[in-house]
Design goal:
CATH class: Alpha Beta
Strand content: 25-35%
Oligomer: single chain
CATH superfamily: P-loop containing nucleotide triphosphate hydrolases
Radius of gyration: 18 Å
CATH topology: Rossmann fold
């Protein structure tokens, strides 16, 4: 059982304060959805948790199972089981997707990253490629090199499903996807939670939550958590928009 805790987190980027005292938590088997207008701090929160060096924590803490990870390098956080699927990942044409996945799994297992994959690894990888709607040739291509937006989203989710992280963060995994793509990604997120990952996912839409039943929905604005509720919050925001939703929250 794992638990990620964000405690009164304040973060600056290039000297500008972006997060202003964010607190939340997520435990194994949970899906917590984070919503908010553009610029509310959702992506900054994820990149800070992942350890991006540009994002400077000026107050607060990030704890995994009670242990602070604030001073850990990004690769150390990955080794502890914290993985982030980016909204717009950077292509790495020099590294094959299959090579990256095998290196990640070998590193976690204490092997040399260039050790050959086990038959079980290959079997699982090919199974998931089919389930996610990718093609076997995607595995032999450079990471995100020449991938469409939907293919990149599926490739990011493939890495998460193979790694089985303690904490999985997905930044707008449904953006730019068609109905079929949303269904595939939504079912994959639900699978991660069922397999024991603690899942944080940002979204602007309700469609993906037809496949994922979040235990909580957190709404951010101005770098703060301004509301927390159940999945009915998503429908409320979709029907009235953020401006009227915030007016309603502030009137209480």
């Amino acid at each position: 059982m794992s638990k990620l805790e964000i405690i009164n987190l304040e973060v600056e980027v290039d000297g500008k304060r972006i997060l202003n005292g964010v607190s939340l938590s997520v435990s194994s088997g949970e899906v917590v959805a984070i919503m908010g207008p553009n610029g509310s701090g959702k992506t900054t929160l994820f990149l800070t948790i992942a350890g991006h060096p540009r994002y400077r924590v000026v107050n607060g803490d990030i704890r995994l199972d009670g242990e602070s990870i604030i001073n850990l390098y990004p690769e150390e956080r990955v080794q502890k089981g914290i993985l982030l699927a980016l909204q717009n990942p950077t292509p790495v044409p020099e590294v094959r997707l299959s090579t990256l996945i095998v290196a990640m799994l070998n590193k976690r297992a204490g092997k040399h990253i260039t050790d050959p994959p086990t038959p079980q690894m290959l079997m699982q990888m090919n199974k998931l490629v089919t389930e996610l709607g990718l093609k076997p040739e995607h595995l032999s291509r450079g990471v995100h090199a020449g991938f469409s937006g939907g293919e990149s989203k599926r490739a990011e989710v493939l890495q998460l499903l193979m790694y089985k992280p303690r904490v999985a963060m997905l930044d707008e995994p449904d953006s730019g996807l068609d109905v079929d793509g949303i269904a595939v990604i939504g079912r994959a997120i639900a699978q991660m939670a069922q397999e024991g990952s603690a899942v944080l996912v940002t979204t602007h839409h309700a469609e993906i939550l037809h496949y994922v039943r979040p235990s909580r929905v957190i709404v951010m604005s101005g770098g703060r958590v301004v509301y927390e509720g159940d999945e009915s919050v998503v429908k409320e925001i979709e029907s009235m928009g953020y401006e009227k939703f915030f007016e309603k929250v502030n009137a209480k």
